[in-house]
Each structure stands twice: as structure tokens, then as C-alpha cells.
Amino acid sequence: MDPTLPSDATIPLSTKNFATSFSATCRESKTASGWEKHKEAAPTVSHPSTSDQITERLSQISMSEASTQPSTPFTGTTPKRGKEIWVPKVGYASSASTVAVERENETNMDPSRLIELFKGPLGAGFNEDVNTFARAQVRATFYPKFENEKSDQETRTRMIEMVSQGLATLEVSLKHSGSLFMYAGHGGAYAKNSFGNKYTAVGVFVLSRMFCMAWGKEAPRMQAEFNDFLEKNRMSISMELVTAVLGDHGQRPKDDYAVVTAVTELGVGKPKFYSTPELIAFCRKWRLPTNHVWLLSTRKSTTALFVAYDALCEEGTATTVCKVLDEVADISVPGSLDHIEVQGEILEGLVARIVGRDSSIQMKDVLKEFPPPPLDGVDEDLGPSLRDLWEANRSDEKKQIKALLDAVGTSMCPTQSDWFGVGDFGASPFCNVDCLALTKFLHVHPSDYSTMKLQEMVRLIQQEGMDCHTNFHKIDALSKNGLYYKMVFHVRDDAVFCQYQEEMRMNKGLWPLYIGFFVDVNFFKVNKEKAEELIKESDSLLKDMTIASESNTSDRTGLADEDANLMVKLKFLTYKIRTFLIRNGLPILFKYGHSNYEIYYLRQMRKWGTSQKKEQELSKMLDEWAIYITGEYGHKQLPKFIYLTEAEPFLERYAKRGLENQALIGAPDSVTKDQGLVLFFPGIPGCGKSALCKEIMNTPGGLGDNRPMHSLMGDLIKGKYWPLLSDQLKKKPNTITVADKNAPNVEVWTQIEDMTQRFKVTAVPVVPDSEGTDTNPFSLDTLAVFIYRVLQRANHPGNLDASSKNPGYVLLMFYHLYDGKSRTNFDSELYERFGSLVKMPVLKPDRDPLPDAVKSILEEGISLFRLHQNKRGRREPSKGTYAREWAQWESKLRKIITGNTDYINSIQVPFEGAVSSVMEQLKKVAKGEHRTPDTEKRRFGNIIFAAVTLQVGEIVNLLEKAEADPSVKNFFNEKEMLTNPIRAHVTLAHKISHGVAAVASYGIHVHQKVPVEFTALLFSEKMAALEARVGSVNGEKVISMNDWPHATIWTAPNVPPKEANTLPQLVSEGKATRLVIDPPFTIYGVLDFY
């Protein structure tokens, strides 16, 4: 063994198994979104033991003094925190002698003598010997690449288990579609595997521009302080860089931007990565952009996340995904940049990873301590944009780089040496590096712990042809006894990461292999006496550090290494269509032809588990794309980095051919000038609907376009209103139709959805705004106002006014049609179905509380209504058991409401203001500024609804017992139900009716047995169903979100099963039969998703 090597050096792995290199190229390869790389090895992530440590740590940052405060040396212990500046709290020590010798060797040589001193490549004449040492320090890095040993499904299961047991929290973040960019201060800019090129120049420009937007006129000073802060505290930040000039990903961004994905303390040892709460605190201190993050700390929320993804994996876009995550997560921390506004609707995916169980507590404290910072420069003229400068200098890449760096200025980029060298040396042979530099690095003495560990890593992945780069930042410190390099770790083969990871499992002290890994290396020589002193100090230091490192083999959260690194990437098909199927398929299509392209895209879709329907639709679209693009370009391939130049217009044209096509590619649906519009009103009598409709119809210019307008008033229509509206839409589908009738329940909404599909119109719900209650979208204040308005009416065409016998009962009946829906659920369901929601202001926000007398009379009426409903259903209140109570209540209601006239008038928004607000919103809808996704889009995906599946045999046993009733027996015999029963289930929630989050909420009980009590049999000539009452699982009640839980057991030909929802209404109308099952019959089913 070479006597100069450390005694614990690792024997190199076979170079046949590794294809890694130190890259001298400046070529940047495609990277995935930043959070994809969050696969850190356990010891490398900072997890403070208390949330107070986060705020203490970051509250000590004094940015105004960062540029003047001397850097605190690393001593191996936590430095004292003063008021002047925060410094990294963890680091490995370097020998004091090492630092002193390095400074002695920094001779500040005149660069004009360098060419005379070095003939040929840098370091060619530098011969290592027993007195030669190396000091290596990480300059910039991103998270280690870590692959789970288990499958994605097994990883998801383990994540749920860990959260359920209180061991961890699940963190979810957005994957922005861009490339990795790292910054370490003073122009030290790095891409995934390169530096000194267009990728890093663009990164510096975007980072500088974001400083300008955040700090305004203070930006130059803050940029300089930030540079000093990173440099003196040896830190780097990593960002996901999203631009339109560095090659196409899934969608060309609307703006050029970046979000911080990692903050790293480099110290002089292993990099330490900030936890997400620390990262957000750091970024808000410096006004840097952050990502959208969600935390899930319960079994229910964690399970719901994965179910929601499975429901949205083939259709998810930014709006829908973020909305659902906000509903299922325990904590949502919006990013400082809205993905929809800066990137667009096409979302690459999500990253879910395990973090410490105290993360939620720490996050709450950080959000309280560090509110979102202001943006002082957002309205200022910042000069030419990135795209302007790029286009103006497109003839020469060096000119593009120069223009960007000059625009940034010296406060952000004090030196351009990484891009252009120094003086005359940028283009001289001096910028080349001795090819033996890497070999020399492995054979010299390590001067500190960091160097030893980096040598150990290099030995594992070394290969002939590795190279280093000249460190121009140290050009004036070069001498015959001191050389400075930049090492670039560029792992081209993912198999290397896997094999290296396997090695780490056997060698716990081995440093992880990072993604984006840059190291500053200094070779220096000393005399014999100094060498002996350094070796002695170094041996002692290395021994201590090795013991400390090997004793710390688990994450600071207390989790085992494998659990601490659990991470899963959740990508969406709408993104993969563009990148994997279109962009990555271009070389196959142009080189091997259409048939081989078809084999390629089918193989990809089947690998992803794409649903059969989606596969068929995509095949049709991709075949059209192949014919189109080869017809346009012939045998000359469309360049992949600008593929969206052709793909986006093609997809836009394809989407315009139908709603299914829009859903297929994730295109936002907007109202077009030639498309019909239906305004409808889910509300309560007295909400001002008819008065608003008149104002809409009488407004000069209508909604701001030339489409004809038509109003259909429900109180003047004899017969069924919604079928009549459907007939009118069929005749005039391009009309703006104002449906002047209350639309209070799911049955009506479903009819309206069907009209939008059949007649290609857009439906827009207009609802009275209200805070609502936990069980109703309308508050008691709002109900009181609506009752008051009804009592002020006279000669109402629908006979609901002051002369009516029971106006209070009628309004309570409408009020209870919404029973069980909170305001959030109400708004969410309408938005899920129709994609937009227009709100009519009703109450002033600064109003006085509802008087006790008004509140009491309304609560009394609600209690009476429930008694009446349970006893008599929808029968007239003037007759029967509670007739006297109703009469007394109606009289008291009139007296109390009219007695509080002044109060009720004082709390209402003036009608003119309400009309103005609604008209402004409607005009935006008419212009297409509202995104209105269609219901057909939401029918795609692998999960549609949650239900309890029942065994057919047990249903048959129940029906045989019901045959004791002659009417039932005759019905069964006529319909042959017992010989041809259908597979029954009790629907709990449907994606269309209740939303994705509602369906996902049942994930906690999936595959578990659930008792179902059947209490009645309802049947008509066209259908039959069992009325159901769902039981509990593990003591938790399973509640169906259907208004009438049931199991459909038979329908006539051409009658869809969903029509069984109308059976209770048919019973009340005498058109169906209800047979009570007493005692109830219980069957156990299994909860599952479909």
C-alpha cells in the first residue's frame, strides 16, 4: 500500500461497474424539478430539537452587518450566538496549522508571471511528495441522490405506517419543471454538473432580478450583503430554475423565475441541509422565493393524499391538485410564487418525503415568527428582461452570457472569471488542467477530515479521463508550492448512484454521493518539520472525527437511515404526455418511423399503468401528432429543446375540437365568444336572484360581448323548468341564458352538467356569499335577511310573499336542502363541477352580531322543521301533528323579524354594490378569464368513487326474506330480480358530485370490512334500491356523503343506476313504494375505490 494513503482508505470499486467522471465539459444536461432530489442521507439534514432553535438561529441574522462582520472560525462546537450575525452551528474542524500554512503559500503572485511559471496545463510541473498536502472543501452541492429499496407502493405503505405511529410527518411539495441551479456567493454559480456557461449565467440573472423585485432600490446593497454572507459562512443555496431560454420542458413558463429548494451549510465537513421550516425562515429573511409545501401528520390525511393522487394522476393540473392538497393536508404553506401565474397549469408532479415528527410544530412557529416579506420592487422598471437580452444577442452565446452578467452588475456578480477567465488567461493553455491532477489528489496527505472523506469518495468512483478545472477565483494565490482547482463531480449513469448507495449501507461513515457536487481543492507543500506537525495534528483530528461520524448513523429525528430517506415522486400524465411521449419520442419518430414510435409510446403508457380509455385517446392524438410533425419537417428532426414551438400550437388546436380533448391534454377550458353561457342560482328564496336577473338583462351592453341574452323565469313557467331550459339550449346553444330559478340540490346540478356536455355550453353558478356554518353554507344572519326580504314582497308571481300562510316554513325547507354541507364543501363542489363560482355579496363584514331574539326564533324554527320532517316528511305544515306549533312560530317569526327591521337593513350590502360586484365577475367569465374545467375531465383518472361493495349472495338472501310481502313478491317475479341480481354497492362519495378530497377521505378505511344496515326497500317500475345506513370501522363512523345512502339492486333497460337517487322523491309523489325492513338487516361489505 502506498505509504502516503490513509490507513482506512477504501479500495476502488471496479471501473467496469462505474461510469462516473470528473467532467471538464461545460454542458448542462436536463435535470428534473428540484424537490425530486430530496433524497438526503440521514446524517446530513438539519433537524433542530425544538422549534425555538430555528427562530433563535435565524433571528440572529443581521443582514445589514453581514458584509462587515468577520467570519467565525470553525472549532468543532456550536459557536456562541451574538447579535451581529448567525454562523453555521455545525462543522468539522481544520487544523490551525493547516490554515496557517495555506496562508503562507498564498503569495498573491502577479498574474503576469503565471505563464512564465507554468508551462502548459496547470499543475503539470507540480510533483507531489511526502511533504505535499491537500485541502478539499465542498463549494456547492444539492441533496444526495437516494433510491428507495422498496417499490413506490411499498414506500407509500411504509410512509403511512410511520405517520400513523407518530414517528414522522409527511411533507409534500410541488415539482417545478426546470433545471438545478446552485449559488455560493460572489458569482460562484453552478448547474447540475457544470459551471461557467449559459445555464449559470441565466441563473445569476434570474436570482438578481428576484432580488430587485423583492428589495427595490435596496437590491444592490442586499445582493452584496448576501454574497458576503454566503461566502463568509460557507453556505450555498439550491434553486429550481424555470425559464423559456434554456430548453423546453412540459410547458413554457409564463415568466422566468426560480424557487429555493435547499439551503446548505458547507462548513469544512459534510454538508448540512436545512429542514424545510429553517429553509422558509431563511428565505423570508432574505426575501427569496419558496416552494408550496404541505405537511400531513395523521393517518387520515396521509392516506387521503395518495388516494387523491391516484384519482388525479391522469388529469391533474396545478389548480386542481393544489386545491385538493389544501383540503387534505394538515398544514399548507403557499409558495411565494403561484405556479399557475408563473409556470402555468401543466404540473410536473409532487414529491412526498418523510420528515421529523415535530416538523408541523416547527413550521407553525416559523410561519408565526417570519410572515411573508413585502416586494418593494415589483412595480419598478427593472430594465430589459431575460428574454429580451437573450433574443437581442442570439447570434453569439458568449454575447448572451456577457449581456446577462453585465446587466446583473458587480453587486451580484463581482467577477466573471468563471465564464471568461482572468485577463489574458481565459483563452490560454493555462485554463487547461493537468490530466494527472485527480491522481495526485488521491496520493497526497489529507489535511483535514473533509479532505479525507472526499478522497474516500473519489476512490470509489474514479475512472480514467477524469478532469478538474482551473479555479480562477484563486488565480492570484497560485505559486510553485500551492495550486487551486475546482472539481466537478458528474455522474452520468444512475446505476452508479445505486451501487454507491449499496456501498454506503456497508460503510456507515461513507459520505453520500451528491447531485450537483463542486469541490475547491488546494495542493500545498511544506518543509519536513511542518509536515510532521501537520500529520500529527491531522491524525488526531481524523481519529476524533471518524469516531464521531461512525457513532452518528441515524437521522436526528431518531429514524433509521432507510426510513429517514423515504421519498416518492408523483408525476402527472398531462406533463408526461409532453415530455416523455412527444419530446422524448421525436428521435424515434424521425429515425425509425411511425410504427416504432407507436411501439415506444404504448410501452411507456403501459409501464405507467395508464387506464385503457386514456391509452386509446392518447394513441389517437399521438398518431395525429406524428403525421403532422413529420409532414412539416420531413426527414429533418424537430430539435427537442424547442419542441413546444410546434407542440403547443398543435395541442391547442386539438383541444378546441372537443371537451374530451381538452381534458386529455390538461388544457384549461375557457369561455369562448361563440359558446353558450348558462347563469344559474344555487340559493334560497329572498336571496335577490330575480332582482339580480333583471339587472343583468337590463345592463347596457350585457356582459360585454355581442352574444344574445335570454332570461327564463321559473315562477312563470308551468311544468318542469329544467327540461324546458334544455330544449331552449338545444335550439340556441350560443345564447347567454339567465336561469331565474333556485337550483338548490345535486339533482339539479347534475341536470345542468348534462346540458353543458350535450350542448357545449358553459354553466356558471351565482351564489349568495355567506360565512355559513359547519353544516350549512348559509349562516343564520343570511337566513334572517332572506326571510325579511320575502316578508317585504307583495304580489309575488310564485305566491311567496307577506300574504303567504307559511313563508318561514318554505324558507326553512330550502335552507335544509343544503343541510350537511359546510360553506367550504358547498363552494368546492360547485367549483369542482363547473370550474368557476360567482359570489353575490349579501352581508357587510363589519356588521353587529345577530340579536338574540332573531337567533332564538330561527333556531326554534329549525328544531321544529326537523321534528316535522322526521314525522311527516314534506307534507303541508298547516295540517297534522305540528300544525298549531307551526302557526304560532310563523306568527312570532313575523313579529320578531319586522321588529328588527333597522338591524337587518343595516347589515346588508347595498343592492347596487352587490349588482356591480356580480357584473364585474360575470364579464370576466364572458371574456374567458375564468378557468372552467368540464366535468368530463374529472371522470378520467384511476379512481372515480368510494363505495362499500356487497356480496350478491347476501343481497339475494335479504330479498328472499322481503318476499313475505305479496307486492314485493309480485314485483320480483315480474322483474326476475332474484335470478338476475346486479352487483350492489353503497356509494360513499363520487368525484363528480363530492370532489376528489371527499373521495380521498375514505382512504383510511380502504379494504376494511364495514357493516351496512338496510332499513327499507324502495321500488318503482324502473328501478329498485335498498335504503342503507353505514356503520363504523374501529369505532369511527363511516358517513356516506350521498343525500340518500342506498344500494341500487335493479334498473330497467336503458335506465342508469344513478336514477335510483330519485326514489325517495317518487315515493313522496306516490310513484314508488317504500317497504320498511324491521328489524334492519345487516350485511358486511368491503370499502374500496373504483
Largest sheet: 6 strands, mixed
Mean pLDDT: 80
Radius of gyration, whole Å: 35 Å
Q: Give the number of domains.
A: 6
Poorly predicted residue ranges: 1-51, 57-101, 930-941
Say how many strands there are: 29
Biased composition (Basic and acidic residues): 32-41
Region (Disordered): 32-53
GO molecular function: RNA ligase (ATP) activity
Protein name: tRNA ligase phosphodiesterase domain-containing protein
Overview of the structural elements:
The protein has 1090 residues and is of the alpha+beta class. It folds into six domains: 132-140 and 431-553, no CATH class; 166-372 and 384-415, no CATH class; 572-665, no CATH class; 673-769 and 822-841 and 909-927, Rossmann fold, CATH 3.40.50; 779-817 and 844-907, no CATH class; 945-1089, 2',3'-cyclic nucleotide 3'-phosphodiesterase fold, CATH 3.90.1740. The protein has 41 helices and 29 strands. Strands 1, 2, 12, 13, 14 and 15 form a six-stranded mixed beta sheet that branches. Helix 5 packs parallel to helix 13, helix 8 (299-312) runs antiparallel to helix 9 and helix 27 runs parallel beside helix 28. It is elongated, with a radius of gyration of 35 Å. The model is unreliable at 1-51, 57-101 and 930-941 (pLDDT under 50).
